[in-house]
Amino acid sequence: MASPLGRATSSPGGSSSAAILLGKQFKQMQTDTDIRGISVGLVGDSIFDWEILLMIDEEQDNLYGGGCFRARIAFPDSYPLYPPKMTFLTPMFHPNVYQSGEVCISILHPPEDDKYGYESAAERWSPVQTPETILLSVISMLSSPNDESPANIEAGKLWRNDKKEFRKRVRKCVRDSQESAWD
Protein backbone atom coordinates (compact mmCIF):
# COMPACT_ATOMS: atom_id res chain seq x y z
CA MET A 1 0.00 0.00 0.00
CA ALA A 2 1.38 3.47 -0.86
CA SER A 3 0.69 6.80 0.81
CA PRO A 4 -0.19 9.95 -1.18
CA LEU A 5 3.52 10.81 -1.12
CA GLY A 6 4.36 7.56 -2.87
CA ARG A 7 5.90 6.07 0.26
CA ALA A 8 5.32 2.48 1.21
CA THR A 9 3.18 2.26 4.33
CA SER A 10 2.76 -1.49 4.77
CA SER A 11 5.98 -1.81 6.77
CA PRO A 12 8.50 0.53 8.37
CA GLY A 13 11.06 -0.39 5.74
CA GLY A 14 9.00 -0.08 2.58
CA SER A 15 10.47 -1.32 -0.68
CA SER A 16 12.16 1.68 -2.33
CA SER A 17 15.96 1.83 -2.34
CA ALA A 18 15.78 4.85 0.00
CA ALA A 19 13.56 2.92 2.42
CA ILE A 20 15.84 -0.13 2.34
CA LEU A 21 18.93 2.00 3.01
CA LEU A 22 17.21 3.92 5.82
CA GLY A 23 16.03 0.64 7.33
CA LYS A 24 19.61 -0.63 7.48
CA GLN A 25 20.90 2.67 8.88
CA PHE A 26 18.11 2.78 11.46
CA LYS A 27 18.81 -0.76 12.62
CA GLN A 28 22.55 -0.02 12.80
CA MET A 29 21.96 3.04 14.98
CA GLN A 30 19.68 1.10 17.32
CA THR A 31 22.20 -1.70 17.81
CA ASP A 32 25.48 0.25 17.77
CA THR A 33 26.80 0.46 21.31
CA ASP A 34 29.50 2.98 20.34
CA ILE A 35 27.00 5.81 19.87
CA ARG A 36 26.56 7.39 23.27
CA GLY A 37 23.77 9.83 24.01
CA ILE A 38 21.74 9.29 20.83
CA SER A 39 18.44 7.45 20.81
CA VAL A 40 16.41 6.93 17.63
CA GLY A 41 12.89 5.75 16.97
CA LEU A 42 10.33 5.98 14.21
CA VAL A 43 7.49 8.47 14.10
CA GLY A 44 4.53 6.23 13.42
CA ASP A 45 5.40 3.47 11.00
CA SER A 46 7.40 5.42 8.42
CA ILE A 47 11.12 4.79 8.01
CA PHE A 48 11.30 8.29 6.51
CA ASP A 49 10.41 10.03 9.80
CA TRP A 50 12.70 9.56 12.79
CA GLU A 51 12.34 10.75 16.35
CA ILE A 52 15.65 11.58 18.01
CA LEU A 53 16.70 12.14 21.60
CA LEU A 54 20.12 13.75 22.03
CA MET A 55 21.45 13.46 25.57
CA ILE A 56 24.44 15.77 25.62
CA ASP A 57 27.34 14.70 27.83
CA GLU A 58 28.31 17.37 30.37
CA GLU A 59 31.98 16.46 30.00
CA GLN A 60 31.96 17.00 26.23
CA ASP A 61 29.96 20.22 26.08
CA ASN A 62 30.04 22.85 28.79
CA LEU A 63 27.19 24.85 27.21
CA TYR A 64 24.53 22.29 26.27
CA GLY A 65 25.87 19.50 28.50
CA GLY A 66 23.20 17.76 30.52
CA GLY A 67 20.53 18.63 27.98
CA CYS A 68 18.03 16.10 26.65
CA PHE A 69 16.89 17.48 23.32
CA ARG A 70 14.12 15.94 21.23
CA ALA A 71 14.26 16.32 17.46
CA ARG A 72 12.85 14.89 14.26
CA ILE A 73 14.57 14.02 11.03
CA ALA A 74 12.40 13.86 7.92
CA PHE A 75 14.06 12.08 5.01
CA PRO A 76 12.96 12.78 1.43
CA ASP A 77 12.04 9.98 -0.98
CA SER A 78 15.21 10.99 -2.88
CA TYR A 79 17.48 10.12 0.07
CA PRO A 80 20.51 9.64 -0.02
CA LEU A 81 20.85 11.92 -3.03
CA TYR A 82 19.22 14.78 -1.14
CA PRO A 83 19.45 15.66 2.55
CA PRO A 84 16.85 15.26 5.25
CA LYS A 85 15.54 18.10 7.40
CA MET A 86 16.26 18.07 11.09
CA THR A 87 14.10 20.03 13.49
CA PHE A 88 14.47 20.33 17.25
CA LEU A 89 11.17 19.81 19.03
CA THR A 90 12.68 20.93 22.32
CA PRO A 91 13.09 24.73 22.29
CA MET A 92 16.69 25.46 21.35
CA PHE A 93 18.62 28.73 21.58
CA HIS A 94 21.55 28.45 19.16
CA PRO A 95 22.93 30.55 16.29
CA ASN A 96 22.46 27.67 13.83
CA VAL A 97 18.92 26.75 14.79
CA TYR A 98 15.97 28.75 13.49
CA GLN A 99 13.32 29.76 16.01
CA SER A 100 11.13 27.08 14.40
CA GLY A 101 13.70 24.51 15.54
CA GLU A 102 15.01 23.71 12.06
CA VAL A 103 18.75 23.05 12.03
CA CYS A 104 20.86 25.11 9.64
CA ILE A 105 24.13 23.28 9.06
CA SER A 106 26.09 22.95 5.82
CA ILE A 107 25.79 19.19 5.49
CA LEU A 108 21.98 19.49 5.45
CA HIS A 109 22.00 21.92 2.51
CA PRO A 110 21.32 20.48 -0.98
CA PRO A 111 24.34 19.24 -2.96
CA GLU A 112 24.84 22.24 -5.20
CA ASP A 113 26.82 25.44 -5.23
CA ASP A 114 25.54 28.05 -2.81
CA LYS A 115 23.96 30.87 -4.81
CA TYR A 116 25.34 33.35 -2.25
CA GLY A 117 28.88 31.97 -2.49
CA TYR A 118 29.06 31.27 1.25
CA GLU A 119 29.52 27.48 1.05
CA SER A 120 31.26 25.34 -1.52
CA ALA A 121 29.51 22.24 -2.85
CA ALA A 122 32.05 20.13 -0.93
CA GLU A 123 30.72 21.49 2.40
CA ARG A 124 27.13 20.63 1.56
CA TRP A 125 25.17 17.37 1.49
CA SER A 126 26.80 14.31 0.02
CA PRO A 127 25.30 10.81 -0.25
CA VAL A 128 28.13 9.52 1.95
CA GLN A 129 26.50 11.28 4.91
CA THR A 130 24.42 9.06 7.18
CA PRO A 131 21.96 9.76 9.98
CA GLU A 132 24.81 9.04 12.40
CA THR A 133 27.17 11.58 10.78
CA ILE A 134 24.37 14.14 10.73
CA LEU A 135 23.70 13.74 14.45
CA LEU A 136 27.38 13.80 15.34
CA SER A 137 27.76 16.99 13.28
CA VAL A 138 24.79 18.57 15.06
CA ILE A 139 26.25 17.66 18.46
CA SER A 140 29.54 19.23 17.36
CA MET A 141 27.67 22.29 16.09
CA LEU A 142 26.14 22.82 19.51
CA SER A 143 29.51 23.48 21.12
CA SER A 144 31.00 25.29 18.11
CA PRO A 145 28.38 27.60 16.57
CA ASN A 146 28.94 29.24 13.19
CA ASP A 147 27.99 32.87 13.81
CA GLU A 148 29.01 34.17 10.38
CA SER A 149 25.58 33.48 8.93
CA PRO A 150 23.27 32.76 11.86
CA ALA A 151 19.82 31.25 11.47
CA ASN A 152 18.92 32.81 14.82
CA ILE A 153 20.26 36.35 14.65
CA GLU A 154 19.71 37.10 18.35
CA ALA A 155 21.64 33.98 19.37
CA GLY A 156 24.41 34.85 16.90
CA LYS A 157 24.76 38.36 18.29
CA LEU A 158 24.86 37.15 21.88
CA TRP A 159 27.41 34.44 20.98
CA ARG A 160 29.67 37.14 19.50
CA ASN A 161 29.07 40.04 21.88
CA ASP A 162 27.75 38.79 25.22
CA LYS A 163 28.90 35.26 26.07
CA LYS A 164 27.62 35.56 29.63
CA GLU A 165 24.05 36.27 28.48
CA PHE A 166 24.34 33.62 25.75
CA ARG A 167 25.38 31.04 28.35
CA LYS A 168 22.52 32.08 30.63
CA ARG A 169 19.97 31.55 27.83
CA VAL A 170 21.49 28.21 26.85
CA ARG A 171 21.54 26.92 30.42
CA LYS A 172 17.83 27.76 30.67
CA CYS A 173 17.24 25.67 27.53
CA VAL A 174 19.17 22.81 29.15
CA ARG A 175 17.12 23.00 32.37
CA ASP A 176 13.87 23.17 30.41
CA SER A 177 14.96 20.21 28.27
CA GLN A 178 15.63 18.13 31.37
CA GLU A 179 12.19 18.90 32.77
CA SER A 180 10.35 18.05 29.55
CA ALA A 181 12.52 15.21 28.19
CA TRP A 182 10.23 12.41 29.24
CA ASP A 183 6.85 14.09 28.59
Report on the structure:
There is one protein chain. This protein is of the alpha+beta class and 183 residues long. It has one domain: Ubiquitin Conjugating Enzyme (Roll). The protein has four helices and four strands, in the order H-E-E-E-E-H-H-H. A four-stranded antiparallel beta sheet has the order 1-2-3-4. Strand 1 and strand 2 form a beta hairpin. The longest helix has 18 residues, at 163-180. It is globular. Residues 1-11 have low confidence and may be disordered. Belongs to the ubiquitin-conjugating enzyme family. Residues 17-179 form the UBC core domain. The active site is at residue 104. It comes from Hortaea werneckii EXF-2000. Keywords: ATP-binding, Nucleotide-binding, Transferase, Ubl conjugation pathway.
